[in-house]
Amino acid sequence: MRIEPRDASAHRAKAEAALQGELPFGRVFTPHMVIASWDREHGWHDGKTVLREPLKIDPAAMALHYGQETFEGLKAHKQDGGRIIAFRLQAHAERMQRSCERLCIPPMPVADFISACEAIIATEKDWVPSREGASLYLRPTVIATEAALGVRPAESYLFFVLATATGPYFAKGFSGIRVKVEREMVRAAPGGLGSAKTGANYVASMLSAVRAKKEGCDQVLWLDALEHRYIEETGASNVFWVEKGVLYTPPTSETILRGITRDSILQLAPALGIQVQERRISLDELVAGIHSGAVTEMFGSGTAAVVSPISEVMVDGHIVEIGGGKPGSISRRIHDEIVAIHRGRAEDRFGWCHPIPC
Ligand SMILES: Cc1ncc(COP(=O)(O)O)c(C=O)c1O
Known about the structure:
The protein has helices spanning 8-19, 62-66, 89-102, 110-123, 199-214, 260-271, 283-292, 329-342, and strands at 28-29, 32-39, 43-51, 69-71, 74-78, 84-87, 135-144, 156-166, 177-181, 219-223, 231-234, 237-243, 246-249, 276-278, 295-302, 306-315, 318-321, 353-355. The protein is of the alpha+beta class. It has 2 domains: 8-168, D-amino Acid Aminotransferase, Chain A, domain 1; 177-342, Alpha-Beta Barrel (D-amino Acid Aminotransferase, Chain A, domain 2). The strands form 2 sheets. Strands 1, 2, 3, 4, 5, 6, 7, 8 and 18 form a 9-stranded antiparallel β-sheet that branches. Strands 9-10-11-12-15-16 form a 6-stranded mixed barrel, surrounded by 4 helices. Helix 3 (89-102) crosses helix 4. It starts with 7 loop residues before the first helix and ends with a strand. Pyridoxal-5'-phosphate is lined by residues 73, 233, 236-238, 257, 259-262, 301-303.
């Protein structure tokens, strides 16, 4: 599926110029994309690398009306020795299959997802930044394209992978954010779509996020939909906290996305000598633990930031500070170790780095 750009030196020069800029998240798109199609007769077929252009889809395309779509978000990194790797590629391929199943979309075979990502990274190898903390972020997406207004699974789909050069998440240093506990709205309900990566979950969270920002918070801290008691996720990240030196995260469920960074942390922490457990925690218990000094750290985990420390929680308008308002040592250690694996500076003991033949 890989293609060589028609004028390789012009392509490289354009990439070099772009990579000198700021690289805000999700805005600096590379010139190509990989696409593939699905229909009943051929299954997934016709995968190719093409120039990134506006899509021609019918205004009745079912993704536009009923949200039948799913996506992934993963990163390619340039390691210190120049090798380019995709991080946890297989896990992202498998999660997209699970999302597809939930959304009645024919899952793309894992091997095809992997070759599509390999193809775009290889084609855009000059767009993988080497700057500390920067990466090439990939956005594999599937949308239902059949033009029909009946509510049912579509009979045709388009898969595409976009790539964007992305700067360091912590441009101003590793610092904590303030999250607002959301008491009314919920991100996901049992039996719903919360464990799939689909647009509906993100639009469901927007109003709450907008309100939290107006109130001086960076993100929302989501509670469960049934009792509005238990901590579920923060923004679009899984959540962790450190209590009496042990690292905890809520168990995944139908309402919590199975984050791949979360999984990496669950595997990595014991290897770093950090005890880690999955357990539910209520908001009351969390606040009591912060006040008593038992809870010393909290952070969100996700592909974008790896670890995003939470230094303050706003509960019904009152600010509760965690760990003196500074990121804790466990948060930092985990962040630094995963980043070191990305860059090839720490041993890839779990086989998470998928080398890209370029
Ligand atoms: C709702 C939600 N939770 C958690 C995560 C973290 O997942 P990952 O670590 O795979 O990026 C994401 C980001 O993908 C997300 O959108």
